[in-house]
Design goal:
Helix 3 packs parallel to helix 4. By secondary structure, this protein is α/β, with parallel strands linked by helices. Helix 7 links the parallel strand 4 and strand 5. The longest helix has 14 residues. The protein has one domain: 3-Layer(aba) Sandwich (Rossmann fold). 37% of the residues lie in helices and 21% in strands. The structure holds S-adenosylmethionine. Keywords: Methyltransferase, S-adenosyl-L-methionine, Transferase. InterPro entries: Cation-dep_OMT (IPR050362), SAM-dependent_MTases_sf (IPR029063), SAM_O-MeTrfase (IPR002935). GO terms for molecular function: O-methyltransferase activity; S-adenosylmethionine-dependent methyltransferase activity.
Amino acid sequence: MTIDEYILRHIDDEGEYLKALYRDTHIKLLYPRMASGHLQGRMLKMFVKMIRPRRILEIGTYSGYSALCMAEGLAEDGMLYTFEINDEQEDFTRPWLENSAYADKIKFYIGDALEMIPQLDVTFDLAFVDGDKRKYIEYYEMVLPRLSDGGYIIADNTLWDGHVLEEQPHRTDLQTIGIKAFNDLIAQDSRVEKVILPLRDGLTIIRKK
Ligand SMILES: C[S@@+](CC[C@H](N)C(=O)[O-])C[C@H]1O[C@@H](n2cnc3c(N)ncnc32)[C@H](O)[C@@H]1O
């Protein structure tokens, strides 16, 4: 048994619905590795239980796996706003969200989060940033003013398969360059407290002071 298998046997089950979504994602979608899985999903739900946000923002819905996990942790009056730029994703994802037990807690938008979020008049208590790795700084600067004091941002993939250790990423590798620039910015940003968890592909937990 691997340590990953051991972990999955000793944490909460993800449940039949999410198992089925994960399977369907692997059968029907390109890049299924982008979806949060069992461990990260349970972690996201646990964060929501700990932080107890009323309003959650997600940038990058993809198949809806992480959205459903966070919605599962939301209180009765909570709401999750999730944004997906790829309109071809809608036919797959919308039924999975709308047929779930959390349909009334999720607002699913198709479009560029960078354009659509500024048009909403909502303050968020938690934001899960999981969109285009080249745009993390733009997402961050857009989200921070829309975050409540003491609110949290969770940024995914911030270790980028270890590529962040490359001193000089190739100039065409804009994702590695983007993530490194984001990590450097967060490290020296006195507006926030931060910690990086080496879970899966790296999760940075950022708290607005
Ligand atoms: C890693 S996947 C999200 C995975 C999902 N959050 C999960 O954990 O299961 C990233 C998604 O972000 C979407 N995306 C990229 N840029 C975006 C933007 N500016 N606004 C909204 N979605 C975006 C991509 O199309 C892709 O589906």
